[in-house]
Amino acid sequence: MIRPSRALGLFLTLALAALAPAARAATLAGSDLIGPALTPAIGAEAPGTTLDFRGTFDALRALRAGKADAAVIFLRNGETLPEVTSGAWRMIRMAHQPVIVAVNRANAATEIDLATLAGLYGETTDTGFDTWRCLPASTLTQGPLAITLNPTGGIATAYFRAEVLGGKPFRKTIRFANDADDAESRATTTVNAIALLPRPPRSPALKVLAVADGRPGKSTKAYAPADSDVHAGDYPLSLSLCLVLPVSRQREAAPCARAALGTTATNALMAKGMIPAPENLRKKFAQTLDS
After folding, report:
1. Residue pair 78/234 in contact by the 8 Å Cβ criterion
2. Are 105 and 91 members of one domain?
3. Which domain holds residue 137?
């Protein structure tokens, strides 16, 4: 038999529990371009997570307003956030999206710089970019056939336009491909072609050029899009996919953050041509989320 005092105590405990707000499920915001790749993994490994993939700017706004617990966003090579610099937020560059510059093997060049790419792809009055003589090492003399993906086909084209063309329009002669396979197919059958791809070419008829930054104050050394050079930030045409979260919310964000860094999500990113951060770095970050 429960004594009246204990019964009253039990009643009050249950009443207070009923009145207490339910624990809020974590919200992960992020880029709309990466949402389809991450959603299945996070849904399976962190069920109950609210996913809000509407874009990098919206994700940052939600994180700053306290409406999200973590975000997966794109940042430029070497770019960071003031909250990360101050220590209020934590960040890991979980993967990288390089822009691969591929040419037909008939092209003898082995490297190219950003200024030449800007001349080949951007509107210019310099007629020197109307033929491959703008890159003497190519040994070609025809007019270049410059190819990139349709801007709706992913982030690579939009990033290239912002980073290399300064947001200015593409040349009217640029050929826009439907996807990477379409771009590669066009470049394979045209000796004077150059293509921007979100992944390395699969055809042996194409080769990858090393890229030098060459802008004032930047290195003139050309780097290939090898994993190590992309991770180090030496390859100049690469976007970072970053997981960011406030230190004050890291326990709540831990399940979805671990899922975003896990094997299933990483494999989905690799299928899109992205280069994941080394496994030991991803695991180390994940292990500290409960601390």
Report:
1. no
2. no
3. 100-232
